[in-house]
Design a protein that fits this description.
about 0% strand; mainly alpha; 7 helices; single chain
């Protein structure tokens, strides 16, 4: 008997076919998430570099409103979202006079706004990755489930026909092992992609943390300069 994919598929039981279809759908989902995340992360990297160059010039000249407005052009930039949140809170406090309220520190308010936006941005970056982790963990077991059921059916067929030997069960075992191979084929890329994306997110988090620290230093220096001018 031939062991080509078409022949194996034709000889599979409905349950084995269902397992195979499920694994194929999981693989398609993994590839879809991978392509979407690669595009998203590349845009985030390019736009963040462009935003960093642009906003640096605005902050050097204390043009806070223009820096806030410029962030709207970089919707996929993680740095733009975090920096804009801090700038908006700080600038709004200064403009509204909230900075003069006793007990209210505009720098601390900006820091809290940055922390909130960092958490939201990180969550957005992790969209779809939980699915990759789940697929990488469960796909081998789903494939193994199909294999176990296939081997049980192979031995059941041998018992019903009364024939023995490896030749009698070789076809059934071969089609059963296909699901294990398919499960590994789906799981390995999913785990690999998940680790790659998590490493990218960790780098993005470092970038957001560094940018937040630099922005807070800028706020402290600006407040110090204003204090000296009013003294």
């Amino acid at each position: 008997m031939s062991f080509d994919p078409v022949t194996l598929w034709q000889t599979m039981t409905p349950l084995a076919k269902g397992v195979s279809v499920l694994l194929i759908l999981m693989s398609i989902y993994s590839l879809t998430v991978a392509v979407e995340r690669f595009i998203y992360y590349n845009k985030a990297k390019k736009q963040s570099l462009a935003f960093a160059r642009l906003v640096t010039g605005f902050l050097k000249n204390d043009r806070l409103q223009e820096a806030i407005d410029s962030s709207k052009k970089f919707k996929n930039s993680h740095l733009a979202r975090v920096v804009a949140a801090g700038l908006y809170e700080f600038h709004n406090d200064l403009s509204s006079g909230a900075a003069n309220i006793q007990g209210h520190d505009p720098i601390e308010a900006a820091e809290r706004a940055i922390e909130r936006e960092t958490l939201v941005t990180t969550a957005d970056m992790k969209k779809g990755l939980s699915g990759l982790a789940t697929i990488g963990t469960t796909a081998p077991f789903i494939g193994l489930f199909g294999t176990v059921i296939g081997i049980i059916n192979a031995f059941r067929g041998m018992a019903l026909t009364g024939s023995g030997g490896i030749a009698a069960v070789s076809t059934g075992i071969a089609e059963a092992l296909v699901t294990t191979a398919l499960g590994l084929f789906v799981a390995i890329p999913a785990v690999w992609l998940f680790n790659i994306f998590m490493n990218k997110i960790e780098r993005f988090q470092v970038e957001m943390s560094n940018s937040a620290s630099e922005l807070l230093d800028y706020f402290i220096k600006r407040r110090g300069a204003q204090t000296q001018r009013t003294a």
